[in-house]
## 1
Amino acid sequence: MVIEHAESVAPKVLNWPIKVPPFSIEHQVRLVMEARIGWKNLAGSNPWLRIAVNGNQLGKQDLLNKAEAFTLRRGVDLTWYKGGRWRILYSPDFESALKQTADGNSVEPKDEPYRFVFDITRHVTPGGENGLRIEHLKLLQEPSTLVLRNVKIEVGHAIEAPSDTAVQPAPAGPLPRIVAGGAHKLDLQVAPRDGTITVRVGDQELTVRTRLSLPGGAWREAKASGDTDFTAGPCRVSRKVSVRGDHIHVADTFANPSDKLIGVMIEHHADLIGKPVALYLAGRKSFADTAVADEAAHPTAFAQFANLGVGLVAEDDILRVHVRSFHNPKTFGISDNRLGIPAGGETTLEWSIYLLPGTGEQADYWAFANAVRRNWDVNFTIPGPFSFAHIPRGLTGEQYAKWMHDRSLAYACGGIAKYTDGKYAHGTGILSAPEFVAQERDWTRKMAAADSDLVPLAYFHAHCSTEPNGRTKYADSRLLDHQGEQIDYPYRYALPLYVPTVENSYGKALWGYVNTLIDDIGVRGIYWDEMSYSVKRFAPGLQWDGCTVSIDPTTHQVAGKLTSVPLIMQPLQLQIIDYVRGKGLFLMGNSQSHTRTVMRKKVIRFVETNTYSAAVNAHLGCPLALANHHVANTQADRAVLVRELLKRGAVYYGHYYDDEPVPWNFTNVMYPITPQQIGPGYVLGKERIHTAVSGRFAFADGKPAEVYVIDAEGKRVAKGMHREVRDGDGVAYELRFPSDHFAILVKR
């Protein structure tokens, strides 16, 4: 035993000597340990630890007792190893993640959430002193305690890690026909009464009920009779229900005739019709009995039953930023637990009910997501290819252009501004970093002049600023916690965060940053990092947004005012979007829109994929995923990313391109693509189809295509694996390939 029990508060480096007995060539030396972050409840995880033996960092190839990838019961897929660090769970003990199966943060027993077994054979010296080093990183502002136990060395016959990467051969037999479809007009019969809406389609019927909080901790439950307008304590509700082709739209106006601010909690829910085939909250399949999700980019709850799919969707700006999706063993739905209505004021919240009659693919999650996508008008063109570029400096314009063309890139983003001491000059700090500005001006202007089709982008972050004396200068704009302390972005040195608005000091100063990028550096586009918010979606101490409060769940009284960061920033964000586009420049953002108003601007936006499951946040917006799940230095690495993102209905966008160019790059034929339909393994576009699954594919207009099948190494398959066939008045393509391949169809 190396150590039975140890605790440390981050950041901390722990060192222990370890003794390894003599062993033979057939033996394996293993490091065994259990680890967790001490927390009051299950609360997710973070990549906290670096582990080294004799100075050698342990990596994913050393993990023996479980597969590298695992999935939480709330549907989030993760990896135990990420960027040189090992993922550790927040947990009150070494059992909860296994026993609390109703908690979405629990895992399957096979994933052994607390126990790690590493093969350290190649790192140790037999019969001598060796060293174990465990570094517990600081990732959050609040202290975190690492708890270790049963750290020991084992010597025995070799064991192998479980594998989940078996390649499936190309399928034989009939193939599914996969073609983009259009909207379906349904004969929806609606009967609104009091707080209920009964919807009928064919022989299927469903009732959605609305309940509202009352003063004193009680609830006003829906009734099956009465008018569509009703009251709940001091709140007056006026409801308008309309059928819109394939869904029902509901607009609820909440009025407060009293002389003081009130808080109202609202739940729209439907009963589970027997045991559901599947439940999805915010696009993630739920495996728990009870679960919740807070995701403005995917403000939905969806249930698939034997002969019917049902989705509830938040529509307007306020309900989207407030939304909480939920289900329990009896009901599912969406709610707003933060609505504040000022004295004499009123607020309208809009939401929709989707009914999808049928079985299988007719009524599954993907049919629901694509129906919402069509109604939200988010199927716009994605350009590319893109990369954050580690471009060598000091080249000529022609050399810059060649660097891009050799890597089949059209869009490239420069780095974050830095001072001469190497520290970040985030935000308005760029105004005090003239050397960086001059450096960026050189390569962007030269590249653009050498080839007008290339688009050099500048990095832009509206929340973070390291401008000297910024905390004092922009005191009214600081992002604060509930203790009134300014929040810093989690990094090894302070990166202060602000919330810029049209009225406050940092919002006004932000224009100096914008104009430096456009007028001084001369970029042809802007990449907006963390476009919706940074670190906190709701914060105290800011100008009130007029609709967000904290409500005591027991008494239902207003506990205080809060501000939605996406809402309060929205007017300034719209001004910047229009200003950049008014200059004829390209704009791209990180994270999906949190409001309907900003979504309607149709900005090219991706989601980061530290976990592949994050791709679901793009399902109701621009279906684009940044390929930053793992380091990709080869075409084979990139091919894995393309396939995994397609499995989740997302389009691949490059992350970094640091290696030498290859003779043929598959990204050269992947863009532009205008999505028409997304699915489990494919994105069907107007001019291109991306697929990681075999099938009988055709464009909606039946036009012929050039077919590119790409193998596991990222190389084009010379022939075979596809066949052109007649498909009505057009053509289709039968694709049969192994599971480590993918294909791109380009319309001729």
## 2
Amino acid sequence: MQRKRLGVVVDGAFNAGLMVRLDPGVSTEEMRIGDFVIIEGAENRYFSMIADMQLRATDPRIAADPPRDLSPFVAQALAGTSTYGMVQVQPRLMMKRPDPLTIPEGTEEEQVQPVRTIPMHFAELYQADALDFATVFGKEGGKNFAMGTPLTMDIPICLDLERLVERSNGIFGQSGTGKSFLARVLLCGVVKAGMAVNLIFDMHDEYAFGRESEDGLFVQGLRQLFGASHILVYSLDEGAGARAGRSVDVVLRIGLNQIEAEDVLLLAEELNLRGTAEATIGLLQDLYGSRWLAQLIEMSPDDLNAFCETSGAHPASVAALQRQLRLVGRRPYVVPQATFSAIDDMVAALDQGRHIILQFGRYNRILDYALVANLVTRRVRQLYQEKVERYEQSQAPADRPQPLMITIEEAHKFLNPAVARQTIFGQIAREMRKYHVTLMVIDQRPSGIDSEVMSQLGTRITGRLTEERDIDAVLTGVSGRSALRGALESLDTREQVLLMGHAVPMPIMIQTRKYDEEFYRAVGVERRSVAQDWADLFGK
């Protein structure tokens, strides 16, 4: 099918983009900011996106004194001659045009590469067709996973899952834009393709089992889609294991001996800790070692005074810290002493290619989420570092760790500028894939995430944002920010996102894939019963 011609290049610059005059009969209403279009130069084909639109008139008197009671016939007579449209187009990628004498049209003879030049005057602008989309974004299958379709066409747009798991990534959007369901779609793709194993911190119990969507439909969780042989569910809530059809595999307990200063300082805002807390904890660790927290919680007033006399700590500071940390000690899932065996079993399961979802159940306060997620991730990261070091020594394929992607919501709590350098999540984001561990952060306030961390996110999937600071944060380190800003601002509030970064060749706006029965069939799974889960788990 022949592409539709839209206009010709009449002006522009490499950094500012190209100005295209639309042909007579082509209306700006046929296009949207962010649309994928093609410029055919003399030697190269340029894969581009529409960054802006303008209305122009050849005679300034038309703008100064527009005709009154203009009939459709007169408007049509003026269009394309006295009045016309202009679009600003930003080339993103290019490839050599095939020679029609030696290479059939549609053959991918040349490699698509970043744009390094621009076409001359009168190069033609065309609508992209299915072959153009396939050339740039690939065809679905293997490592390519369809995330949705262009806003105006029914053609799958794919992410490269292999490139996705190479770096940390982010899913952003204001409340109600469907971030959790989008994350489900992406996680299903990673699980199905086997590109990485997943550790998912499920704050609101959204990923393991079915729940009602905003459309009032009951949708399936990852455990129901892929079964117990692929998905293990851990929980802090002992009551979760007793629910029919939603049983968990392990109830996790956290010991006071496992909680480190880093975990407590991450909770400074929730616990209203004083600025002296870090120094006070350091004095406690010097005297009591790993038992510092249990010892502090158990201190009587006399014990507290004795400690202050011995260490030189301020009594009021120690008493205030004790009052706040007793809140941690009273959490039902916290016990005086625990081993790391349950978390170590997680890593063993991840090594076997099984995915872990840690549910929080009724313990879904930020205090619970930040404490447990940071502690578990620190241990997992430590074991992965040991595995990588062993693999580097042996160079045996059997010792190579499975790439691990850790999914966290409310990411600004772990990665804000005040704590990003202290938390294990900040270290993982900066290290990228050094130890085969990456993050997938989900947040509605990207401006709350440290700018250095944001700059390290390889792929960003962004729904509608309205706050200027959030838009600026999402576009940190991205070229062509002004064009992408316009694309972000034009998104609908639901089921539309902007894909950009390492896993897609160029930014593109898409209508996201629906998480429904058709999707379940596409990822190759059927509805599963509890009996099927048990059969998978025990081989019956």
